[in-house]
Design goal:
By secondary structure, the chain is of the alpha/beta class. The protein has helices at about 15-25, 30-40, 45-55, 60-70, 90-100, 115-125, 165-190, 200-215, and strands at about 1-5, 30, 80-85, 110-115, 125-130, 135-140, 155-160, 190-195.
Length: about 220
């Protein structure tokens, strides 16, 4: 199954993508994670992307498109994929269609996670991420068993620099300007399915699995 997850910052895309990836055994491809890794390693891509990410702006299309193209060309996507945080502009959406067509694929379903800015600010302010394995926690909603320590690999938990209230608000403006048109793009193609990002993680997961079954994707 080829899935695309769209939605504003903090709608729960990454959290749900990780659960689905394990359950369905298909890779989770998150452009935000890939870019943060590049920044952490100080690669040439990371050096170019860092400033945009800190300000909550989008990294230029050509940089992101290059890493997604490279990933989609790998055999790992043969059984399907979950794209999280890509496409985020119309240009990226068109590139994705073209790259998938070249390998005989198309997005089966595009999930649009809807939420409010208030919920997003509260979620992202409390988000903690594991430096080692990338697992996501929330100080109140999904707390780790031990403060600042990852439940899964005992790695250190940290707060993302772009999760402060002002940057989250900037990310929402960028989302409204650049990414909202992508929602209409998939709506017109008939592949868009809107879900509530406000639901509890387990409850939303059940709804998604039922949706995939109804559409005979699993
Ligand atoms: P990226 O990392 O993709 O950030 P984002 O899309 O803004 O999404 P988030 O990771 O903030 O939110 P999410 O919806 O995944 O929520 P999560 O599940 O973590 O991008 C970061 C930056 O990279 C961008 O600003 C841009 O600069 C650059 N970039 C990335 N892709 C790009 C592209 N294609 N083009 C150009 N630039 C790009 O959940 C959030 C919190 O809530 C967590 O603490 C979690 O534990 C909690 N939570 C999740 N679900 C629930 C729930 N159901 N109930 C209660 N709590 C929940």
């Amino acid at each position: 199954m080829n899935l695309v997850l769209l939605g504003p910052p903090g709608a729960g895309k990454g959290t749900q993508a990780k659960v689905l990836s394990q359950k369905l055994n298909i890779p989770h491809i998150a452009t935000g994670d890939m870019l943060r890794q590049a920044v952490g390693k100080g690669t040439s891509l990371g050096k170019k992307a860092k400033g945009y990410m800190l300000k909550g702006e989008l990294v230029p299309d050509e940089l992101v498109i290059a890493i997604v193209r490279e990933t989609l060309a790998k055999a790992v996507v043969e059984k399907g994929f979950i794209l999280d945080g890509f496409p985020r502009t119309l240009k990226q959406a068109e590139m994705l269609d073209e790259a998938l067509e070249n390998i005989g694929k198309k997005p089966d379903v595009v999930l649009y996670f809807k939420t409010s800015i208030e919920k997003s600010v509260a979620r992202l302010g409390g988000r903690r991420v594991c430096r080692k394995c990338g697992a996501n926690f929330h100080v109140k909603n999904i707390p780790p068993k031990k403060d600042s320590i990852c439940d899964y690999c005992k790695g250190e938990l940290y707060q993302r620099k772009d999760d402060g209230e002002e940057t989250v608000k900037r990310r929402w403006s960028v989302y409204a300007e650049e990414t909202a048109p992508v929602i209409s793009y998939y709506e017109k193609k008939g592949t868009l399915r809107e879900v509530s990002g406000d639901l509890d993680v387990g409850e939303l997961n059940k709804i998604l699995i039922a949706l995939f079954q109804r559409e005979k994707l699993i």
